[in-house]
Structures are given as C-alpha cells and as structure tokens.
Specification:
Structural class: alpha/beta
Number of strands: 22
Strand content: 15-25%
CATH class of one domain: Alpha Beta
CATH topology of one domain: Nucleotidyltransferase, domain 5
Shape: globular
Strand order of the largest sheet: 8-7-6-9-11-10
Distance between the termini: 59 Å
Largest sheet: 6 strands, mixed
CATH architecture of one domain: 2-Layer Sandwich
Number of helices: 14
C-alpha cells in the first residue's frame, strides 16, 4: 500500500492504492467545508513529493501558477502512489493580498515583497495586466535569533549583523523570479538588516536611524539570480521604528486622501500606528512585544493545527475552538485575547489583571491554561497600543472614540475578535469603526509597483505630510501607558 506523509504533523499513513484522499485525511482532523464538492479550496493540500492528477474541479479553483506549485483539492484526489503532502489547514497563516485596484499598464514583470518581522510574502505580477502570477510565502529566518525586533538589534550589536543580513537575503533569493522591478517594504529594523545598515542608533534614545531612506540594489549586490538590469528598491521608512510597511499601508488604506481622520494600526511584534487625513499624518511606534503572536506565552504557539484560536464565555464556563479539530497543544494570539475577555466576563480575571480567588492560572482545555505571567504580557502589549493611540489622538486634538475608521493591519489584526479587543481595552473605538484590513503593506507595495507615473509623487507626498511622534519622549506617555494597563 502507498505511504502518505503529512506535513507539518509528521504523521505517516498507509492507504489503499486508488483510495480517496478525503477518507484518508478526515481522521486526522482535516476539514472539508463544502462537503467535498470541490468548490471552496478549504481542503487544499500541496504535493511535495509524488503525483496527484489535476481534475476539472481543481482547474476551476486554482490558478495555473498554483497548480504548477503543486496545490490540489484533497476531496477530488486519489492516492495512486507514495505521497508527501503539506496540509494547508496546518500551516502558519501568512497573510497575502488579492485586492483589485486601478493600475497603469506597463511592460514586463514586477515583484512586490512584504518583509515582515515574522513572515515574508512575495507576489509576482504582470505589469501589463496587473495579474498576480505567483505567490511565495515563508517565515522570516531571523526568528532564530529573536521573535521581536529589539532581540535582533541586540544580536546584531553582539556581532551577528552580517549573519542576519545574509539570512534574509538568502531566503528572499529563493522567493524571487526574473522581473523588471522588485519593490520591498518592512519596518525600520527589517529595512536596516536587509540593506546592511548599522542598527546601533536604534538601540538607544532617541532611536533615530542613520539612514531610513529608499535604497536601490542590483541583483549582484544581493547575490540574487536575476537579470542584471533588474532594479531592487526598498521603500523609505517614516522615522524611528515606523517603517515603509506603514508608508505602504497609508497608501493602501487611502488615509492620505481621506477628508476624515482615520488610523492604521499594525498589531505585530513591532506595534506601529499612523493617524491622519489628507492634510496631516501622525505616526508612532510602540513596543508591544510578541504577545499578540503568542510570543512569551507559556503555551503560546502560532495559529496552526492544535492551537486554541477562539474562546467564549458560555453558561458560566469557557468554550474553546481548536484549529484543525486536533488535540489542543497551545494558544495563539487571537485565542489569548478571547481568553482574557471571557475571563473578565466570568469574573475569573480582575480589572487589575490578577486571577480571582488567588488562582495561579486559568484552565482552558487540558493541557492548555493561561498563567498570571501570560496575562501580564498581554496587558503590556495592549497597554502599549492603547496608549499610543491615545497620545496620537490627543496630539491631533481628538479622542480615540472620535476616529471614524481604524484599519487593523497584519495577520493578528485580521483574525482578532473585535469585541474581545474592545473588552480588554486594546481598542476604544466603536466596533462599526474598526476594520480588519489584511496585508496593507503588501497591497501598498503593489499599488506603487503598478503606478509608475504616480509612484514617486505618492511616496513623496506621504513623506512630506507624515510627522513622526517619539512616544518615549512624550511626557504623557508613561502615565497614559500605566492607565491603559488595567482592563476596563
């Protein structure tokens, strides 16, 4: 009987030749949302080794590039020989972008890259049609030396800067294909480490980078196997720890053209905030830490199979949802926020963050529980973001509650429960004003890539209007931060 290896679970199973892959995978928690009708992509798998025949149903739901990359529908597949499969439902979700927008037709191909602290996304586009031809995603290899940007800054200062630069350039080299133009965006530390710029000024006050402008490279300088005339450009940062990912996000969300005040909040390991309209934009960064991505949480893990992703208070108890219907192994960021909100509703967590009745932890689903230290990490993260929003709103002469549109960028912002975020005091605006915005960094880079005649004017216009606010130097920040630590 053929063997089927399942990644990343590491399971191996024997399957009768000709058997349905659906029947083989269902016992392992793989879900088939459309009931095996072949229309939803929910059961997609990628063939790493072996072969699965392409069916008409697969041709309907996958692009030619996806089929070429090995993606198949499990519900329409049969096992005809040994296979090694990557199960999409068990992947770490890496947020891409499939938004449609106006563009200027041009010749050749282009690549847009979102260089995130945790994840990397590259999209290859036909500049004549605006069509996305291929998508490549990966985890940032620098996480080996620290989950947050300051850990990597410290590693760089200890002599590891060249190692960090080489690692990210090497990983991206495998993700890019021949193109005329490559545009990248990322936060300031990612910008410096990719470009080979000294991060020492970012290690101490006033945290002003020595060079945060646009950088241009040739393939030879990066060691990339691309045509020699390919231009590789890293978009400029806005100041301190506010990078070109926020510049691209401002472009993607239309804040710079808005008549009303709007905000963009990136809830990643480096919390970045922009607030403004067509006249003025304020931006800041705040050290949220990795709690929103379950970093430094005892049972924290990425949003993969076995992670508790949602928690709700039901009839006096906690009801948990586990990704992939797998045995619970830990909790991801969205689950942590839900758990804290539910704990507050049930009176198990007090407004000061302590557990009620002297408890040392709050059990969710065995063996997963959240500890007092976990709650403290969440308080520090949400307090930093909430304080940053209040300070910028105050500088504007408004309140957070007055902002009519808050765009939540990044993977965590895309999946977090808005009501839970408001319950713990992370966001103070009305739910109707808060919008998950997806990967605004990637979308903004694509918009710049596909608008050659307007690109420099867009980027320059945002740069001129953007004012960086150093929160650490604001006399009100510490007081506001302490006030935001408590739960409402």
């Amino acid at each position: 009987m053929p063997l089927v290896d399942l990644a990343p679970l590491g399971a191996r199973l024997e399957v009768e030749r000709g058997a349905s892959l659906e029947s083989a995978l269902a016992p392992y928690g793989v879900e088939f949302p459309c009931g095996g009708a072949g229309v939803c992509r929910g059961c997609r798998v990628r063939v790493i080794e072996g072969r699965i025949a392409i069916t008409p149903e697969m041709q309907e739901v996958f692009s030619a590039a996806e089929l070429a990359a090995g993606w198949r529908l499990a519900c329409c597949s049969r096992v005809e020989g040994p296979l090694k499969l990557e199960i999409a439902q068990w992947e770490t979700p890496i947020l891409s972008d499939d938004s449609q927008f106006a563009f200027e037709p041009a010749e050749g191909l282009g690549i847009a890259i979102d260089l995130g602290t945790t994840t990397l996304v590259a999209q290859r586009l036909d500049l004549a049609t605006g069509e996305v031809l291929a998508v490549e995603t990966a985890l940032n290899p620098q996480t080996e030396w620290g989950a947050d940007v300051m850990s990597r800054v410290q590693y760089a200062l200890a002599g590891g800067a060249a190692e960090l630069t080489a690692a990210i350039r090497r990983t991206l080299a495998h993700m890019v294909k021949p193109a005329r133009l490559v545009l990248l965006a990322g936060n300031t530390v990612m910008h410096h480490l990719f470009c080979g710029i000294d991060v020492e000024p970012l290690a101490h006050a006033p945290f002003q980078p020595a060079d945060h402008g646009k950088r241009v490279f040739t393939p030879a300088e990066l060691g990339w196997d691309l045509p020699t005339d390919t231009s590789i450009r890293f978009l400029p940062c806005l100041g301190s720890f506010v990078g070109s990912d926020i510049l691209a996000g401002i472009l993607a969300t239309g804040i710079a053209e808005s008549a009303e005040i709007a905000a963009l909040v990136d809830l990643g390991t480096n919390g970045e905030i922009a607030m403004g309209n067509c006249e003025r934009i304020l931006c800041a960064s705040t050290a949220a830490g990795p709690a929103f991505e379950a970093g430094r949480i005892r049972k924290g893990m990425r949003a993969a199979s076995g992670a508790i992703s949602h928690v709700a208070a039901r009839n006096g108890s906690l009801e948990c949802r586990v990704i992939g219907d797998a045995p619970p192994r830990g909790i991801c960021g969205s689950g942590l926020v839900d758990a804290a909100a539910a704990g507050l509703d049930l009176g198990r967590i007090l407004p000061n963050g302590r557990f009620a009745n002297g408890a040392r932890e709050m059990a969710l689903v065995p063996p997963v529980a959240i500890t007092q230290a976990d709650v403290r990490e969440l308080q520090l993260a949400k307090g930093a973001i909430a304080a940053g929003l209040r300070i910028l709103a105050d500088r504007w002469g408004a309140r957070v509650e007055d902002i009519r549109k808050i765009h939540l960028a990044g993977a965590f912002g895309n999946y977090v429960n808005i009501e839970s975020a408001r319950r713990i005091g992370l966001l103070e605006a009305e739910p109707s004003c808060i919008f998950p915005a997806g990967n605004t960094s990637l979308r903004g880079v694509k918009m710049a890539l596909l608008a050659p005649s307007r690109r420099d004017a867009w980027i320059g216009g945002i740069h001129v209007r953007a004012e960086h606010v150093p929160l650490a130097a604001d006399l009100k920040f510490q007081e506001t931060f302490v006030d935001c630590l408590a739960f409402p």
